[in-house]
Structures are given as C-alpha cells and as structure tokens.
Amino acid sequence: MVVHRDTGEIEHKKFSNLPNYFRKNDLFLMNNTKVFPARLFANKDRTDAQVEVFLLRELENDLWEVMVRPARKVRIGNKLMFTKNVYCDVIDNTISGGRVVRFEYDGEDIYGIIDRIGQSPLPPYIKRDAEPSDKVRYQTVYAERRGAVAAPTAGLHFTDGLIKRLKNKEIKIEYTTLHIGLGTFRPVQVEDLNRHQMDSEYFEVSPVTALAINEVKKKKRKVVAVGTSVVRSIETVVVSGFQVTPKRGWTDKFIYPPYDFKMVDALITNFHQPKSTLLMMVSAFATRKLIMKAYREAK
C-alpha cells in the first residue's frame, strides 16, 4: 500500500514496485541491527523449576539485565542452570521488574553460548514456538550488528535483488543502528502522551551516514526511512534546520502527533497494533485521519 500524505491518495502496489517511486540521489536509510537469540530457559538449582530468562542488554562483561518468568519465583541469590557448565547468579532487581544476573561458564565465549542455547525472540503476534531456522529467517538481509531483541520488520521485505535495483537506479543506501528492545511491543497505557516513558535503546548514526543525509537534504532530494527505528535515530541527532550530527548513545525519543519531522521525507513501515508508539509515529507522519483511512481500506 502506498499512502501519499501530500494528496491523500492511496494506491495498492506490490513491494517490488518500490524503486518506481524514487529517483537518482534519493537516500534510503536502513537499520542494520541484528537480532540475537535472547530467549533462554533455565532450571533453578535447588528446585529444578523451569524459568524463562529473556536477555535485554549486556551491562558489562557477563553481567546482563534480563526479564524472568515467572518473576515471583526468581529472587536475589538464586542460581539458574542452563547446562551443567553454564549458569547465572541473580544479583539484583531492576526498577522495571527485571533482574540483573551474572553468567558463569567454562571456556566458551558468552555469545557463542547464547547462539547455541538461545531461541529467537519472535514477536507476540507470531503464534508458534521458535524454530532453529528463525535465527536466520527473522533477520533483514543487511543485518550486521548484534543487539536487538526484535527485528526492524520494515526491512524484512527487502531482498538482495531489490536492493540491487535501487542501487542500479543510483539511489543511495546508508545504515543506522538502533538495537530494538522489548518496549517496541509495549502499548501506551496513559491518556496524557507526555507521561508515556519510552524504553531507552542504543543507537548509532555514523559520520558517513550523517554526511550522506546532510548532502541529500542540501540537494533537496528525499530521505527515506526504512522503519520507525530509523526515524527515531535520525530525528534524535538533528542539530539545527536540516542538519544532523554523528552520534552514538541511548535514545528514548517518543514521536507522536503533532510532530514536525526535520529529516524524513518518506517512511516505509508495516501495519501496527492499536495503542502502540509505532502507530502514533506514523499518525504523526501522515495524520491520524489518513492513516485510519488507509487501515480501513486495508482491512
């Protein structure tokens, strides 16, 4: 579906038609984050009760922030056994209801262990158990930098062939990084949107990408964000007017109506769940009225 926010026109096209809507020197920005198998299962060392351990982020070497389920059964001091030689000690609670754990293991690199024993963290709308093939299938073709617990799903539609067609048309492609966290699935539960707190997510906009954006804006060509995570990265690093600066760090930027987009001229995105921050962003981009019209037509 193609939604023209300037005219309100809605077209129904195949995704393979995408290059037809853009011209030489337009710039596509893609999130090159890579999903890692963050869902692990362990047994408590004394009771043998099974516990799900969902890795959120590494705080320092072998020290991780995690979510556990059932949370009421996991307390500070517990030891969670993944295999005979791999376990973690629960050393603290977090204000968000999670835990801080320290991994203990012999020899093998921790990421090698996670790759071996972890499962892909499929989104809640996929109603089946994870399969080994998901570690490859639930990735974009340009995924490179490990750190996400959810794929930038707008990018899943791109194939190597489609990217080649864009490049053959002299459309530029650059990459940002934003490691998508569990908060992407958390609905807004407050009436006053100013009170909604986004989870912080690590992002990077490299000097090469920042320069490409600034040059494209100077030439009045289009900046095309492939996914809402790219929008958050780019809009976070706007410094003045139509300029961005390279940056790495954490962003909790929440974009909702009304919002004046500084850098993004076109957005490639999926359909989103009600009350999600993602739906609010696209409503800010194309107006809620037009987005709801598009959703009704798609239904």
Q: Under the CATH scheme, which architecture of the largest domain would be assigned? A: 3-Layer(aba) Sandwich
Helix content: 10-25%
Query: Any idea what the radius of gyration is?
Result: 21 Å
Distance between the termini: 12 Å
Shape: elongated
Uncertain spans = none
Q: Which structural class do you get from the secondary structure elements?
A: alpha+beta
Sequence of strands across the biggest β-sheet = 17-13-12-3-14-18
Kindly provide the name of the CATH class of the largest domain.
Answer: Alpha Beta
Number of helices: 7
CATH topology of the largest domain: QueA-like
What kind of sheet is the major sheet? 6 strands, mixed
What does the model show?
With 299 residues, this protein is of the alpha+beta class. It folds into two domains: 2-35 and 135-298, QueA-like; 39-117, Thrombin, subunit H. It has helices spanning 110-117, 134-137, 160-168, 207-218, 228-236, 277-286, 288-298; strands at 2-3, 10-11, 27-31, 33-35, 39-44, 50-60, 63-69, 79-83, 86-93, 99-105, 145-148, 172-178, 201-205, 223-226, 238-240, 243-244, 247-251, 266-268. Strands 17-13-12-3-14-18 form a six-stranded mixed sheet, with helices on one face. Strand 6 (50-60) and strand 7 form a beta hairpin. The longest helix has 12 residues, at 207-218. The termini are close together.
Descriptive labels:
299 residues; alpha+beta; Thrombin, subunit H; 7 helices; 21% helix; elongated
Short account of what is shown:
Pfam families: Queuosine_synth. One of its GO terms (biological process) is tRNA queuosine(34) biosynthetic process. This protein has 299 residues and is α+β, with helices and mostly antiparallel strands.
